[in-house]
Design goal:
By secondary structure, this protein is an all-alpha fold. The two termini are 26 Å apart.
Length: 253
């Protein structure tokens, strides 16, 4: 099958579709053009559907590449440039970056829940962990929910055991959710992308933000496209490994 593929035409198709040519493309074109062709179809399927705006597709790539769990800086730079080229404003891209960073609260969401469970199991600080929120804490909680439409799962625990940190944490997480130029469902798309990425696989966070996106009017087809776009970063294995393989082959020859 590989022998039947027109390599020159495939290279042209990739250049037209992606706007660039990478060393991993060259390596796959030489060694496995059928695999490269299959990857091109896989990556371009969301773009052909037209369900998401072109700039929103770039936002998903920015989020997946820029997440602290991945930090694929060359792809991040490329997709920021492509988003701006497709009509995004700098403030929109900035909000994508802020929302991507927002998902780094996972250590608090996950870790504090585990800490509370283990403290209960060990019989430690039971009065502290079980105490009701004070009226002032309830007021601050309601204000955060009114501003953002959500409350972090770790919020009550932070009030109880990290009172000096809680307001800073809530303000940092609230800013990109309560303001900025992106529609609510697009904000959810960004958060879904980071949580569902193969470098994160946060099922709880993915579920929470899918639920929020549906509540903000997103369709199942749009959310499915977000997931398709996010899964495309799996090709970064080839991005790093194929040039290394080609270099090793050259050294051996």
């Amino acid at each position: 099958m590989a022998a039947m593929i027109d390599r020159a035409r495939l290279k042209t198709e990739i250049m037209e579709a992606r706007g660039y040519w990478h060393p991993f493309h060259e390596g796959l074109l030489e060694l496995a053009p059928d695999y490269l062709q299959a990857y091109l179809a896989f990556q371009d399927a969301p773009a052909r559907s037209g369900r998401l705006e072109p700039k929103v597709r770039e936002f998903i790539y920015i989020a997946a590449d820029g997440a602290v769990s991945h930090l694929y800086t060359s792809g991040l730079k490329r997709h920021i440039e492509m988003a701006l080229d497709k009509g995004a404003t700098p403030l929109e891209v900035l909000e994508v970056i802020e929302l991507t960073m927002f998902t780094a609260q996972a250590p608090h969401e996950m870790g504090l829940r585990i800490l509370a469970e283990e403290m209960q199991q060990a019989g430690l600080q039971q009065d502290t962990m079980a105490r009701p929120l004070t009226p002032d804490e309830e007021r601050r909680k309601r204000a955060h929910i009114e501003a953002t439409g959500s409350w972090p799962a770790c919020g009550d625990t932070l009030f109880r055991i990290a009172p000096d940190f809680v307001d800073a944490f809530l303000a940092y997480s609230a800013i990109p959710l309560r303001s900025g130029p992106l529609p609510a469902k697009v904000k959810d798309f960004i958060l879904i992308a980071v949580c569902a990425a193969p470098t994160t696989l946060d099922a709880e966070g993915t579920r929470r933000h899918i639920r929020s996106a549906l509540g903000h009017g997103a369709t199942a087809e749009e959310i499915a496209e977000v997931l398709q776009l996010t899964s495309a970063i799996s090709i970064h294995t080839c991005t790093a490994a194929i040039p290394a393989l080609m270099e090793a082959i050259e050294q051996e020859s």
